[in-house]
Specification:
Blueprint: E1 2-3, E2 11-13, E3 25-33, H1 39-48, E4 62-69, E5 72-80, H2 97-103, E6 106-112, H3 116-132, E7 140-145, H4 157-167, E8 170-173, H5 180-211, H6 220-238
Parallel strand pairs: 1-8, 3-5, 3-6, 6-7, 7-8
Antiparallel strand pairs: 2-4, 4-5
Helix pairs in contact: 1-5
The structure holds guanosine-5'-triphosphate (GTP).
Guanosine-5'-triphosphate binds near residues 33, 145 and 175.
Keywords: GTP-binding, Hydrolase, Nucleotide-binding
EC number: 3.6.5.2
Catalytic activity: GTP + H2O = GDP + phosphate + H(+)
């Protein structure tokens, strides 16, 4: 488990109508968690810096934003995933969840500190992610939200840390309502990790590409020699030039 501690060098910009610049990377993030844990609130906080108290129940909105991060321009898409319910046998009920898991490059798994069941759902979600993306490098951040509601706490910080340790994920306990910077750091970290992974993948592809021998193009000397040969055989057969 690694905890988040980052300077805030994350700038947001709306996507301009005429995109006459190069977008370096596509980053797809899925935000997953049980109902009411604050998924929409977190995304809206990240995109607008504002905390808005109440939202319609989420039906699967996709948000996009151009983000400048350490000299790169990232086209970030964030999928607000409709609430995930976990059956008594631990299986996922939501029909769209697997589709979103397949689509995404990085995951934000959110539980509420005031709801133990939402914490339990994280492990099940993580298992599904690992099934779909067996490569253990896929970046995952686990967030314990509603850190301001201490009187209603059901999940201890140590339990969040332990879970993240077990799953090899990054952990952060935050309050979306009280602290915008922490929300920022979570998204920033995830974007950075996805972008890093993409760079590594591209570098690997390039290396593999350079190992495939290229077909040799004939050089000029070779062409001249072949031309002379053809010419002299013509002279021999006709006896004239
Ligand atoms: N006190 C407190 N309330 C929060 C926090 N984050 C979200 N909420 C509230 O929790 C409720 C649920 O937030 P949503 O963002 O709609 O939760 P959701 O996970 O998107 O829920 P679904 O749409 O059902 O999937 C709202 O009333 C939010 O205002 C927080 O950090 N602290």
């Amino acid at each position: 488990m690694r905890s988040l501690n980052m300077s805030n060098n994350f700038l947001l910009a709306p996507i301009p109508e005429s995109a006459d610049y190069i977008i370096n990377r596509d980053v797809k993030i899925a935000v997953l968690g049980s109902s009411g844990v604050g998924k929409t609130a977190m995304i809206v906080r990240f995109l607008t810096r504002r905390f808005i108290g109440d939202y319609e129940s989420n039906t699967g909105n996709l948000y996009s934003r151009l983000v400048h991060l350490e000299g790169e321009q990232l086209f970030v898409q964030i999928q607000d995933t409709p609430c995930v319910q976990v059956d008594s046998d631990g299986s996922l009920v939501s029909e769209h969840t697997c589709k979103y898991i397949e689509w995404a490059d990085g995951f934000l798994l959110v539980y509420s500190m005031t709801d133990y069941n939402s914490y339990r759902a994280i492990q099940v979600l993580h298992q599904h992610i690992r099934k779909v993306h067996p490569d253990s490098k896929v970046p995952v951040v686990i967030v314990g939200n509603k850190g301001d509601l201490l009187h209603a706490r059901q999940v201890q910080t140590s339990e969040g840390i332990q879970l993240a340790n077990e799953l090899g994920a990054v952990f952060s306990e935050i309050s979306t309502s009280e602290n915008c910077e922490d929300v920022y750091d979570v998204f920033q970290h995830l974007c950075k990790e996805v972008s890093k992974l993409q760079s590594q993948y591209l570098a690997g592809e390039k290396r593999r590409g350079s190992l495939i021998p290229r077909p040799k193009s004939p050089n000029m000397q070779d062409l001249k020699r072949r031309f002379k040969q053809a010419l002299s055989s013509k002279v021999k057969s006709t006896g004239t030039l």
